[in-house]
């Protein structure tokens, strides 16, 4: 069974982002970029399946500008076998990414597609669910634990009230939550080896996908700033303030 | 055209956040309908009919809807959607699971986690963990929107909408429900609690969280946590507050032994009053706290618990 994983290039989670002065977006020039953390979890899960013999090949997919090669290389260094880059400088929204992924799925016929539950830049939390819909497949969102057996996957999901277990038919789409696994770091030899692994580059047109954005971003602004308050010295003072100044207890 | 709110429920009542979603929906169109799909969902449908501003409740009975599997529920919503201008869901684990599937089946975009309705086709939504606010406009005929409940004041009760029975769409046969391991708690639910007591890695163990439980119970508060505390196994996953956990906006948020990473702040910085207890006076949490107290939580929390008792 092939496993396809999606890896998105995003601004590193440690970077304090800045809104552009002209309010058209967020400053991305000269900013550290990394693989979306949820996608590291997706790659890790796929590699573990291969190590256990449940998967035969792990393919890393990314969509975006040429630099997404680096993100795919990171996945290859972790242990993925090859990459597919759908290269475009156009703005990509989740529905478009889902359509690109579907086109690649149609070609590659994986048994599982594993994506992050949410990209930490746009915070949409849509792509995996949309892909499953387009394919007519089942989906296991917010996965905390996976167990692949006999043509189906048992998925333990992180939900509002705690955890939920479902069983879904394969082929299926999985979206990862934080506790699914702890992704490995790539070793130096593996980083070297990854340089020789193949990455196929495709264009959205060649896949027959119209990626035109459906949502128009009118403006991007700074959120209202919260001002730091005061430091109190004692618990008595704190309780007094909460009671009489804030009126919250 | 009317707006359809899709309600999650537990069989007896719709979730509290449905009243927030109805309030948001009322800003998108002239009339709001609520869909309650389930197996034996009569009581839940009735609870939806009592939300002010709801013109009609659609109750869809089908054994396939008992556990709200996306594969089974989405076709029903897709069938109803063409009669509406918008389909609205709360951005909780149900809405996040189901709405994108509906959107893709309709070939429309989804607006995720709207915090403001600017006009029926234009919404404000946070991106980058709330460090930027994007105003987005959709040109799609049917607009699929999830809304962040804490940003819309809940519609009041006391309504009496008509309940209409509609046919179900059956099971897709792709997925099945096995079981749930839900956290049991008598405390107020995190996202609707007026006060939230939240603990981080500074607590050092799950046992030490008992201290926070005592404080929470005195205050009638819900209990939350940072990702680090959840990852370390001190508390269950559903306690996590933040960019990738729950978003809360209580009157009072008490952050104890939490450093204040941007991913955590994303989930609580809209709280009315924030208190931080941390031994490191440089901790970023103090930059958003109205009242900070620098010191050892193991000393301060018991003191605070005793002091609030003396009300
Ligand atoms: C103001 C603004 C400006 C933007 N400008 C640009 C721009 O200049 N260029 C541009 O490309 N996009 C741009 N975007 C689009 C945006 O960054 C996201 O790529 C897009 O909206 C997808 O949303 P998401 O990643 O949050 O989806 P989610 O649904 O949250 O993503 C979930 C998962 O889907 C997978 N996934 C999503 N996207 C990709 C991808 N591209 N490749 C591989 N896997 C993926 C990953 O596994 C990810 O974890 C802009 C968005 C906004 C709001
Ligand atoms: C993709 C991604 C998603 C994430 N999503 C979330 C999310 O949704 N929510 C979230 O919370 N985090 C999230 N994080 C993690 C986040 O970056 C931080 O790592 C996390 O919030 C830190 O938790 P903490 O503050 O409890 O721990 P730490 O940062 O370790 O802070 C512990 C604090 O406790 C204080 N302390 C220690 N002992 C005492 C004592 N005895 N008395 C008083 N104070 C004490 C210390 O001074 C310190 O400030 C995410 C990270 C990533 C990469």
From TrEMBL, chain A:
Keywords, sorted A to Z: Electron transport, Transport
The Electron transfer flavoprotein alpha/beta-subunit N-terminal domain, residue ranges: 23-211
Pfam family of the protein (one): ETF
InterPro entries: ET-Flavoprotein_bsu_CS, ETF_a/b_N, ETF_b, ETF_beta_N, Rossmann-like_a/b/a_fold
Presence of the UniProt keyword Coiled coil in the record: no
SMART domains given in the database record: ETF
UniProt keyword Glycoprotein present: no
Database matches in Gene3D superfamilies: HUPs
Family to which this protein belongs: Belongs to the ETF beta-subunit/FixA family.
Record PANTHER family: ELECTRON TRANSFER FLAVOPROTEIN BETA-SUBUNIT, ELECTRON TRANSFER FLAVOPROTEIN SUBUNIT BETA
Protein name listed in UniProt: Electron transfer flavoprotein subunit beta
UniProtKB/TrEMBL annotation, chain B:
Record's keyword annotation contains Flavoprotein: yes
A Pfam short name: ETF
Family annotation (SMART domains): ETF
Keywords attached to this entry: Electron transport, FAD, Flavoprotein, Transport
Presence of the UniProt keyword Electron transport in the record: yes
Membrane-spanning residues: none
Domain Electron transfer flavoprotein alpha/beta-subunit N-terminal: 3-181
Family classification: Belongs to the ETF alpha-subunit/FixB family.
Designated name of the protein: FAD-binding protein
Source organism (scientific name): Reyranella aquatilis
């Amino acid at each position: 069974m092939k496993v396809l994983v999606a890896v998105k290039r995003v601004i590193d989670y440690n970077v304090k982002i800045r809104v552009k002065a002209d309010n058209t977006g967020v400053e991305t020039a000269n900013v550290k970029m990394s693989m979306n953390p949820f996608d590291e979890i997706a790659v890790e899960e796929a590699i573990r399946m291969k190590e256990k013999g449940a998967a035969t090949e792990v393919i890393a997919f990314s969509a975006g500008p040429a630099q997404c090669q680096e993100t795919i290389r990171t996945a290859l260094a972790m242990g993925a076998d090859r990459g597919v880059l759908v290269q475009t400088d156009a703005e990509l929204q989740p529905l478009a990414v889902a359509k690109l992924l579907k086109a690649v799925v149609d070609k590659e016929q994986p048994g599982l597609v594993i994506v992050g539950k949410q990209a930490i830049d746009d915070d949409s939390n849509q792509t995996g669910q949309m892909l499953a819909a387009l394919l007519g497949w089942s989906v296991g969102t917010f996965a905390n634990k996976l167990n692949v057996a006999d043509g189906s996957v048992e998925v333990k999901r992180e939900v509002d009230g705690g955890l939920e277990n479902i069983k879904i038919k394969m082929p299926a789409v999985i979206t990862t939550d934080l506790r699914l696994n702890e992704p490995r770091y790539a070793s130096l030899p593996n980083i070297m080896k990854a340089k020789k692994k193949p990455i196929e580059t495709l264009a959205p047109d060649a896949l027959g996908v119209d990626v035109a954005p459906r949502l128009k971003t009118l403006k991007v602004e700074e959120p209202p700033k919260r001002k730091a308050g005061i430091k109190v010295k004692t618990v008595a003072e704190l309780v007094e303030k909460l009671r009489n100044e804030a009126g919250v207890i | 055209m009317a707006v359809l709110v899709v309600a999650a429920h537990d069989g007896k009542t719709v979730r509290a956040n449905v009243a927030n979603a109805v309030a948001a929906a009322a800003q998108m169109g002239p009339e709001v309908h609520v869909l309650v799909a389930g197996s034996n969902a009569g009581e839940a449908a009735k609870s939806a009919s009592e939300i002010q501003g709801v013109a009609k409740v659609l109750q869809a009975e089908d054994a396939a809807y008992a556990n709200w599997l996306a594969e089974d529920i989405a076709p029903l919503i897709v069938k109803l959607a063409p009669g509406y201008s918008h389909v609205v869901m709360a951005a909780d684990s149900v809405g996040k699971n189901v709405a994108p599937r509906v959107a893709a089946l309709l070939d429309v975009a989804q607006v995720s986690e709207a915090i403001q309705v600017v006009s029926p086709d234009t919404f404000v939504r946070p991106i980058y963990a709330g460090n930027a606010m994007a105003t987005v406009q959709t040109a799609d005929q049917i607009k699929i929107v999830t809304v962040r409940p804490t940003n819309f004041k809940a519609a009041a009760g006391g309504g009496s909408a008509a309940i209409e029975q509609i046919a179900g769409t059956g099971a897709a046969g792709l997925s099945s429900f096995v079981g749930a391991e839900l956290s049991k708690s008598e405390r107020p639910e995190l996202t609707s609690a007026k006060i939230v007591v939240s603990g981080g890695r500074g607590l050092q163990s799950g046992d030490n969280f008992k201290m926070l439980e005592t404080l929470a119970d005195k205050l009638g508060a819900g209990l939350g946590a940072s990702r680090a505390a959840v990852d370390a196994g001190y508390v269950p996953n559903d306690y996590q507050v933040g960019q990738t956990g729950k978003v809360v906006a209580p009157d009072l948020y008490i952050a104890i032994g939490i450093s204040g990473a941007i991913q955590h702040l994303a989930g609580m910085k809209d709280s009315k009053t924030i208190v931080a207890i941390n031994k490191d006076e440089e901790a970023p949490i103090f930059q958003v706290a109205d009242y900070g107290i620098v010191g050892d939580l193991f000393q301060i929390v018991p003191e605070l618990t005793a002091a609030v008792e003396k009300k």
